[in-house]
Amino acid sequence: REIRLDSVSFTYPDKTAPALDGISLTLRAGETVAFVGVNGSGKSTCSKLIAGLYDPSAGSVSWNGTDARDLDPVSLQQRVAVVLQDPVHYPFTALANITVSRGSLTESVPEEAHAAAVASGADTVIAGLPGTWEALLSKRFAGGQELSAGQWAKIAVARGLYKGAPVLLLDEPTASMDPRAEHAVYQAVLRGIRRPGQITVLISHRLASVVECDKIVVFDGGKIIESGPHQELMDRQGEYAQMFALQAAGYQSTPTGAEEA
């Protein structure tokens, strides 16, 4: 199973400059792939084309050799789990907020929902709610609970994991989490809380979270400028290596006066 982007370009209706400009990329079953780059570089637009939310202005996106535009839209929806930075807050119970990703409010597999919640860290959020899994997550109802942005992010990641789709797209869903929580979520995704053979795409500005991905794709100005595993990109000393070094320096700064001690 593979997804292939062939010379794909995309321009938003209200823009003249393309958000994506002639990119080609292949995603294979079982791969974990990170999309990195500055804001506006094309990462999120690319993920939306993969998910079938947009059609390319030029080029093609194909699934196993079939153009995505020829696939049934409902079938394509079922193949992709998308977790966004600003997820949907359903006025449902904590359990239903996770299991709704499979398209039903009445059928669920609690054991799988719990495993997804543990992976995302949502289990501790739910355990602290009055009513735990049956707590209503909306202040519009008597006794309903409201969550913080970081807590909703953990629920949303669990929702994406529970769906078990062939493709999992995580578009900065952990931006509202602290680095330790984000790292824990990505480690869970990278180390097996995924459907076998699943294609996983992680979009993050925190490069330390994606070093274990099979492939890291670097976007700039709507183009792919580098692609490869972490160590290979570091050895090239290109854009990725520079971005990684800048972030690492922020964690390794020497406290004032330390050198004189």
Automatic annotation (TrEMBL):
Residue ranges that the Swiss-Prot or TrEMBL entry lists as coiled coil: none
The UniProt entry, under Pfam families, shows: ABC_tran
Name the keywords, alphabetized. ATP-binding, Nucleotide-binding
Q: Report the GO molecular function annotations.
A: ATP binding; ATP hydrolysis activity; ATPase-coupled lipid transmembrane transporter activity
Domain named ABC transporter: which ranges? 3-246
What InterPro entries does the database record attribute to this sequence? AAA+_ATPase, ABC_transporter-like_ATP-bd, ABC_transporter-like_CS, P-loop_NTPase, Type_1_exporter
Q: Which Gene3D superfamilies match?
A: P-loop containing nucleotide triphosphate hydrolases (3.40.50.300)
Protein name listed in UniProt: ABC transporter ATP-binding protein
